[in-house]
Protein backbone atom coordinates (compact mmCIF):
# COMPACT_ATOMS: atom_id res chain seq x y z
CA UNK A 1 0.00 0.00 0.00
CA UNK A 2 1.51 3.39 -0.97
CA UNK A 3 1.71 6.35 1.43
CA UNK A 4 -1.47 8.03 0.12
CA UNK A 5 -3.56 4.85 0.23
CA UNK A 6 -2.41 4.22 3.83
CA UNK A 7 -3.12 7.82 4.90
CA UNK A 8 -6.58 7.76 3.25
CA UNK A 9 -7.39 4.44 4.91
CA UNK A 10 -6.39 5.75 8.35
CA UNK A 11 -8.43 8.92 7.82
CA UNK A 12 -11.52 6.91 6.77
CA UNK A 13 -11.21 4.73 9.88
CA UNK A 14 -10.97 7.86 12.08
CA UNK A 15 -13.89 9.51 10.21
CA UNK A 16 -16.11 6.46 10.88
CA UNK A 17 -15.19 6.52 14.58
CA UNK A 18 -16.04 10.24 14.70
CA UNK A 19 -19.28 9.63 12.80
CA UNK A 20 -18.34 12.17 10.08
CA UNK A 21 -20.81 12.71 7.26
CA UNK A 22 -19.57 10.85 4.14
CA UNK A 23 -19.79 14.02 1.96
CA UNK A 24 -17.62 15.89 4.43
CA UNK A 25 -15.24 12.92 4.50
CA UNK A 26 -14.76 13.17 0.73
CA UNK A 27 -14.27 16.92 0.81
CA UNK A 28 -11.64 16.56 3.56
CA UNK A 29 -9.76 13.92 1.58
CA UNK A 30 -9.44 15.90 -1.68
CA UNK A 31 -6.56 18.42 -1.50
CA UNK A 32 -7.27 22.14 -1.91
CA UNK A 33 -4.58 22.49 -4.61
CA UNK A 34 -1.83 20.36 -6.17
CA UNK A 35 1.10 22.13 -7.82
CA UNK A 36 3.64 20.42 -10.08
CA UNK A 37 6.41 22.46 -11.69
CA UNK A 38 9.42 21.89 -13.89
CA UNK A 39 12.66 23.18 -12.39
CA UNK A 40 15.56 23.39 -14.86
CA UNK A 41 18.94 24.65 -13.70
CA UNK A 42 22.39 25.03 -15.19
CA UNK A 43 24.77 22.62 -13.45
CA UNK A 44 28.27 23.71 -12.41
CA UNK A 45 29.74 21.96 -15.50
CA UNK A 46 27.50 24.03 -17.84
CA UNK A 47 25.04 21.23 -18.64
CA UNK A 48 21.31 21.53 -17.92
CA UNK A 49 19.40 19.42 -15.41
CA UNK A 50 15.62 19.25 -14.97
CA UNK A 51 13.76 18.26 -11.83
CA UNK A 52 10.09 18.08 -10.85
CA UNK A 53 8.93 20.12 -7.86
CA UNK A 54 5.66 19.59 -6.00
CA UNK A 55 3.59 21.52 -3.49
CA UNK A 56 0.31 20.08 -2.27
CA UNK A 57 -1.89 22.44 -0.30
CA UNK A 58 -4.29 20.16 1.47
CA UNK A 59 -6.60 22.28 3.63
CA UNK A 60 -6.79 25.87 4.92
CA UNK A 61 -10.04 25.81 6.89
CA UNK A 62 -8.26 26.40 10.20
CA UNK A 63 -5.59 28.86 9.00
CA UNK A 64 -2.63 29.24 6.61
CA UNK A 65 -1.34 25.92 5.32
CA UNK A 66 1.97 24.78 6.68
CA UNK A 67 4.42 21.98 5.98
CA UNK A 68 7.93 20.94 5.00
CA UNK A 69 9.78 20.85 1.71
CA UNK A 70 11.65 17.60 1.06
CA UNK A 71 14.57 17.02 -1.33
CA UNK A 72 14.86 13.28 -1.94
CA UNK A 73 15.03 10.96 -5.00
CA UNK A 74 11.80 9.21 -3.90
CA UNK A 75 9.66 12.36 -3.72
CA UNK A 76 6.51 11.71 -5.77
CA UNK A 77 2.99 13.21 -5.95
CA UNK A 78 1.36 10.42 -3.91
CA UNK A 79 3.84 10.79 -1.07
CA UNK A 80 3.58 14.60 -1.05
CA UNK A 81 -0.24 14.31 -1.04
CA UNK A 82 -0.15 11.92 1.91
CA UNK A 83 2.27 14.11 3.90
CA UNK A 84 0.22 17.28 3.16
CA UNK A 85 -2.92 15.56 4.44
CA UNK A 86 -1.11 14.40 7.58
CA UNK A 87 -0.04 18.01 8.24
CA UNK A 88 -3.73 19.05 8.22
CA UNK A 89 -4.60 16.40 10.82
CA UNK A 90 -1.45 17.16 12.85
CA UNK A 91 -2.12 20.92 13.19
CA UNK A 92 -5.83 20.24 13.91
CA UNK A 93 -5.15 17.59 16.58
CA UNK A 94 -2.65 19.97 18.25
CA UNK A 95 -5.32 22.73 17.96
CA UNK A 96 -2.95 25.09 16.11
CA UNK A 97 -4.48 27.76 13.83
CA UNK A 98 -2.94 26.25 10.67
CA UNK A 99 -3.87 24.00 7.79
CA UNK A 100 -1.68 21.41 6.09
CA UNK A 101 0.66 21.39 3.08
CA UNK A 102 3.81 19.62 1.96
CA UNK A 103 6.25 19.95 -0.92
CA UNK A 104 9.36 18.52 -2.40
CA UNK A 105 11.67 18.13 -5.34
CA UNK A 106 12.61 14.72 -6.76
CA UNK A 107 16.40 15.00 -6.55
CA UNK A 108 19.33 13.62 -4.62
CA UNK A 109 20.75 16.60 -2.68
CA UNK A 110 23.97 14.66 -2.03
CA UNK A 111 24.67 14.72 -5.80
CA UNK A 112 24.27 18.52 -6.06
CA UNK A 113 26.80 21.20 -5.11
CA UNK A 114 25.77 24.02 -2.78
CA UNK A 115 25.43 26.43 -5.72
CA UNK A 116 23.33 23.90 -7.68
CA UNK A 117 21.06 23.44 -4.64
CA UNK A 118 20.72 27.20 -4.36
CA UNK A 119 19.78 27.55 -8.06
CA UNK A 120 17.27 24.69 -7.78
CA UNK A 121 15.65 26.20 -4.66
CA UNK A 122 15.43 29.65 -6.26
CA UNK A 123 13.88 28.27 -9.49
CA UNK A 124 11.34 26.27 -7.46
CA UNK A 125 10.47 29.40 -5.44
CA UNK A 126 10.07 31.45 -8.66
CA UNK A 127 7.54 28.85 -9.89
CA UNK A 128 5.42 28.76 -6.71
CA UNK A 129 5.93 32.20 -5.13
CA UNK A 130 2.46 33.50 -5.98
CA UNK A 131 0.79 30.46 -4.38
CA UNK A 132 2.62 30.48 -1.05
CA UNK A 133 2.81 33.31 1.52
CA UNK A 134 2.40 34.32 5.14
CA UNK A 135 -1.41 34.02 5.10
CA UNK A 136 -1.56 31.23 2.50
CA UNK A 137 1.08 28.54 2.86
CA UNK A 138 4.28 28.58 4.93
CA UNK A 139 7.03 26.08 3.95
CA UNK A 140 9.50 24.57 6.45
CA UNK A 141 12.60 22.33 6.35
CA UNK A 142 12.16 18.58 5.96
CA UNK A 143 14.34 15.74 4.75
CA UNK A 144 17.22 16.99 2.58
CA UNK A 145 16.52 20.67 3.32
CA UNK A 146 17.65 22.90 6.18
CA UNK A 147 17.88 26.49 7.45
CA UNK A 148 20.02 27.45 4.42
CA UNK A 149 17.31 26.20 2.03
CA UNK A 150 14.73 28.28 3.91
CA UNK A 151 17.00 31.35 3.65
CA UNK A 152 17.15 30.95 -0.17
CA UNK A 153 13.33 30.62 -0.36
CA UNK A 154 12.90 33.69 1.88
CA UNK A 155 15.31 35.73 -0.25
CA UNK A 156 13.79 34.68 -3.59
CA UNK A 157 10.21 35.16 -2.35
CA UNK A 158 11.14 38.61 -0.99
CA UNK A 159 12.29 39.71 -4.49
CA UNK A 160 8.65 39.43 -5.60
CA UNK A 161 6.78 40.42 -2.42
CA UNK A 162 9.12 42.58 -0.33
CA UNK A 163 11.00 41.45 2.77
CA UNK A 164 8.92 38.53 4.15
CA UNK A 165 10.76 36.56 6.84
CA UNK A 166 7.51 34.89 7.97
CA UNK A 167 7.10 33.12 4.60
CA UNK A 168 9.13 30.16 5.93
CA UNK A 169 9.83 28.62 9.32
CA UNK A 170 13.13 26.95 10.21
CA UNK A 171 15.20 29.84 8.79
CA UNK A 172 18.53 30.95 10.34
CA UNK A 173 18.25 32.92 13.60
CA UNK A 174 19.92 35.95 11.93
CA UNK A 175 17.05 36.10 9.42
CA UNK A 176 14.34 35.96 12.07
CA UNK A 177 14.34 32.24 12.87
CA UNK A 178 13.22 30.99 16.28
CA UNK A 179 15.67 29.97 18.97
CA UNK A 180 15.44 26.22 19.54
CA UNK A 181 13.78 25.46 16.16
CA UNK A 182 16.67 23.32 14.91
CA UNK A 183 16.49 21.02 17.94
CA UNK A 184 12.68 21.18 18.29
CA UNK A 185 11.63 18.06 16.34
CA UNK A 186 14.32 15.83 17.88
CA UNK A 187 13.44 17.20 21.34
CA UNK A 188 9.76 16.50 20.66
CA UNK A 189 10.66 12.91 19.76
CA UNK A 190 12.46 12.61 23.13
CA UNK A 191 9.49 14.11 25.05
CA UNK A 192 7.14 11.60 23.37
CA UNK A 193 9.56 8.74 24.13
CA UNK A 194 9.82 9.79 27.79
CA UNK A 195 6.00 9.84 28.07
CA UNK A 196 5.78 6.36 26.51
CA UNK A 197 8.52 4.94 28.76
CA UNK A 198 6.82 6.40 31.84
CA UNK A 199 3.75 4.29 31.04
CA UNK A 200 5.96 1.21 31.41
CA UNK A 201 7.60 2.53 34.61
CA UNK A 202 10.87 3.15 32.73
CA UNK A 203 13.06 6.13 31.97
CA UNK A 204 15.63 7.12 29.34
CA UNK A 205 18.55 6.17 31.64
CA UNK A 206 17.67 2.47 31.76
CA UNK A 207 16.86 2.19 28.04
CA UNK A 208 18.71 1.15 24.86
CA UNK A 209 17.89 3.03 21.64
CA UNK A 210 18.40 2.44 17.91
CA UNK A 211 17.83 5.34 15.51
CA UNK A 212 17.34 5.24 11.75
CA UNK A 213 18.44 8.59 10.31
CA UNK A 214 21.11 10.88 11.72
CA UNK A 215 20.10 14.17 10.12
CA UNK A 216 18.33 17.03 11.87
CA UNK A 217 15.76 14.96 13.79
CA UNK A 218 17.86 11.83 14.43
CA UNK A 219 21.06 13.58 15.48
CA UNK A 220 19.25 15.92 17.90
CA UNK A 221 17.22 13.05 19.36
CA UNK A 222 20.41 10.98 19.80
CA UNK A 223 22.28 13.93 21.36
CA UNK A 224 19.50 14.64 23.88
CA UNK A 225 19.05 10.94 24.74
CA UNK A 226 22.82 10.68 25.31
CA UNK A 227 22.80 13.81 27.51
CA UNK A 228 19.93 12.34 29.56
CA UNK A 229 21.97 9.17 30.18
CA UNK A 230 20.29 6.88 27.61
CA UNK A 231 22.31 4.32 25.66
CA UNK A 232 22.21 4.74 21.87
CA UNK A 233 23.36 1.29 20.68
CA UNK A 234 22.86 1.71 16.90
CA UNK A 235 22.50 4.53 14.37
CA UNK A 236 22.06 4.48 10.59
CA UNK A 237 21.91 6.98 7.77
CA UNK A 238 22.05 6.85 3.98
CA UNK A 239 25.83 6.11 4.15
CA UNK A 240 25.56 3.06 6.44
CA UNK A 241 25.07 2.06 10.07
CA UNK A 242 27.13 1.74 13.26
CA UNK A 243 26.55 -0.22 16.46
CA UNK A 244 28.07 -0.48 19.92
CA UNK A 245 26.28 -2.59 22.58
CA UNK A 246 27.88 -0.45 25.33
CA UNK A 247 26.45 2.77 23.88
CA UNK A 248 27.82 5.02 21.12
CA UNK A 249 29.66 8.21 22.13
CA UNK A 250 27.16 10.53 20.35
CA UNK A 251 29.16 13.81 20.67
CA UNK A 252 32.14 12.01 19.07
CA UNK A 253 29.91 10.59 16.30
CA UNK A 254 28.46 14.07 15.66
CA UNK A 255 31.97 15.48 15.32
CA UNK A 256 32.89 12.62 12.95
CA UNK A 257 29.85 13.13 10.69
CA UNK A 258 30.36 16.89 10.69
CA UNK A 259 33.91 16.47 9.40
CA UNK A 260 33.46 13.47 7.04
CA UNK A 261 29.75 13.67 6.11
CA UNK A 262 29.42 9.92 6.70
CA UNK A 263 29.08 7.34 9.50
CA UNK A 264 31.84 5.28 7.83
CA UNK A 265 35.22 4.87 9.57
CA UNK A 266 33.90 6.01 12.97
CA UNK A 267 36.32 4.48 15.46
CA UNK A 268 33.96 4.20 18.47
CA UNK A 269 31.59 1.61 16.97
CA UNK A 270 31.39 -1.31 14.52
CA UNK A 271 30.00 -0.81 11.05
CA UNK A 272 26.92 -2.89 10.19
CA UNK A 273 24.47 -3.46 7.33
CA UNK A 274 21.99 -0.52 7.41
CA UNK A 275 19.18 -2.98 6.53
CA UNK A 276 19.70 -4.59 9.97
CA UNK A 277 19.13 -1.33 11.88
CA UNK A 278 15.34 -1.72 12.00
CA UNK A 279 15.68 -5.17 13.60
CA UNK A 280 18.70 -4.40 15.78
CA UNK A 281 18.38 -5.37 19.45
CA UNK A 282 17.15 -2.37 21.48
CA UNK A 283 14.30 -1.27 23.77
CA UNK A 284 13.17 1.67 21.63
CA UNK A 285 13.51 2.01 17.85
CA UNK A 286 13.20 5.60 16.57
CA UNK A 287 12.63 6.01 12.80
CA UNK A 288 14.00 9.46 11.82
CA UNK A 289 14.41 9.06 8.05
CA UNK A 290 11.70 8.07 5.55
CA UNK A 291 8.12 7.16 6.46
CA UNK A 292 6.60 3.73 5.85
CA UNK A 293 9.56 1.76 7.24
CA UNK A 294 7.66 0.01 10.05
CA UNK A 295 6.21 -3.00 8.25
CA UNK A 296 4.94 -6.45 9.29
CA UNK A 297 8.49 -7.85 9.35
CA UNK A 298 9.81 -5.20 11.78
CA UNK A 299 6.70 -5.42 14.00
CA UNK A 300 6.88 -9.27 14.13
CA UNK A 301 10.56 -9.07 15.07
CA UNK A 302 9.83 -6.57 17.86
CA UNK A 303 7.05 -8.78 19.22
CA UNK A 304 9.46 -11.74 19.67
N1 LIG B 1 13.17 18.60 10.31
C1 LIG B 1 12.02 18.74 10.91
O1 LIG B 1 11.79 19.70 11.64
C2 LIG B 1 10.93 17.69 10.76
C3 LIG B 1 9.65 18.00 11.24
C4 LIG B 1 8.65 17.02 11.16
C5 LIG B 1 8.93 15.79 10.60
N2 LIG B 1 10.19 15.54 10.12
C6 LIG B 1 10.43 14.20 9.55
O2 LIG B 1 11.58 13.61 10.15
C7 LIG B 1 12.24 12.79 9.18
C8 LIG B 1 13.71 13.21 9.11
O3 LIG B 1 13.80 14.58 8.71
P1 LIG B 1 15.13 15.43 8.91
O4 LIG B 1 14.73 16.85 8.90
O5 LIG B 1 15.94 14.88 10.02
O6 LIG B 1 15.88 15.14 7.53
P2 LIG B 1 17.47 15.21 7.24
O7 LIG B 1 17.59 15.29 5.77
O8 LIG B 1 18.12 16.22 8.10
O9 LIG B 1 17.96 13.76 7.72
C9 LIG B 1 17.48 12.58 7.14
C10 LIG B 1 18.37 11.42 7.59
O10 LIG B 1 17.85 10.21 7.09
C11 LIG B 1 18.89 9.49 6.44
N3 LIG B 1 18.32 8.63 5.41
C12 LIG B 1 17.75 8.97 4.24
N4 LIG B 1 17.36 7.87 3.57
C13 LIG B 1 17.69 6.82 4.36
C14 LIG B 1 17.55 5.42 4.23
N5 LIG B 1 17.00 4.87 3.14
N6 LIG B 1 18.00 4.63 5.25
C15 LIG B 1 18.58 5.17 6.36
N7 LIG B 1 18.72 6.49 6.54
C16 LIG B 1 18.28 7.30 5.55
C17 LIG B 1 19.81 10.57 5.89
O11 LIG B 1 21.11 10.06 5.60
C18 LIG B 1 19.81 11.54 7.07
O12 LIG B 1 20.70 11.10 8.08
C19 LIG B 1 11.51 12.98 7.86
O13 LIG B 1 10.60 11.90 7.69
C20 LIG B 1 10.74 14.28 8.05
O14 LIG B 1 9.56 14.34 7.30
C21 LIG B 1 11.17 16.47 10.20
TrEMBL record:
GO biological process: L-glutamate catabolic process
Gene Ontology CC entries for this record: mitochondrion
Residue ranges of domain Glutamate/phenylalanine/leucine/valine/L-tryptophan dehydrogenase C-terminal in the record: 178-304
E.C. number: 1.4.1.3
Catalytic activity: L-glutamate + NAD(+) + H2O = 2-oxoglutarate + NH4(+) + NADH + H(+); L-glutamate + NADP(+) + H2O = 2-oxoglutarate + NH4(+) + NADPH + H(+)
Listed InterPro entries: Aminoacid_DH-like_N_sf, Glu/Leu/Phe/Val/Trp_DH, Glu/Leu/Phe/Val/Trp_DH_C, Glu/Leu/Phe/Val/Trp_DH_dimer, Glu/Leu/Phe/Val_DH_AS, NAD(P)-bd_dom_sf
Matching PROSITE patterns: GLFV_DEHYDROGENASE
Oxidoreductase found in the keyword field: yes
SUPFAM superfamilies with a match to the protein in the record: Aminoacid dehydrogenase-like, N-terminal domain, NAD(P)-binding Rossmann-fold domains
Top EC class for this record: oxidoreductase
Alphabetic keyword roster: Oxidoreductase
Gene3D superfamilies: Leucine Dehydrogenase, chain A, domain 1 (3.40.50.10860), NAD(P)-binding Rossmann-like Domain (3.40.50.720)
MF-aspect GO terms: glutamate dehydrogenase (NAD+) activity
Family: Belongs to the Glu/Leu/Phe/Val dehydrogenases family.
PANTHER family on file: GLUTAMATE DEHYDROGENASE
The name this protein goes by in its record: glutamate dehydrogenase [NAD(P)(+)]
UniProt organism field: Carpinus fangiana
Lineage: Eukaryota, Viridiplantae, Streptophyta, Embryophyta, Tracheophyta
Amino acid sequence: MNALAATNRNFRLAARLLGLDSKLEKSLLIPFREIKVECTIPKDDGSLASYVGFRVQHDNARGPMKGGIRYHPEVDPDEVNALAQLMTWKTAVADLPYGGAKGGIGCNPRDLSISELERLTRVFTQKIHDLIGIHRDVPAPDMGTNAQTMAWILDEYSKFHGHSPAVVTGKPIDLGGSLGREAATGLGVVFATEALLAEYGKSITDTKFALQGFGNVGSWAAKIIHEKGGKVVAVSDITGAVKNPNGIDIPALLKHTEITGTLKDFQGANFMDPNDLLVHECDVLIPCALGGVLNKYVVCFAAK
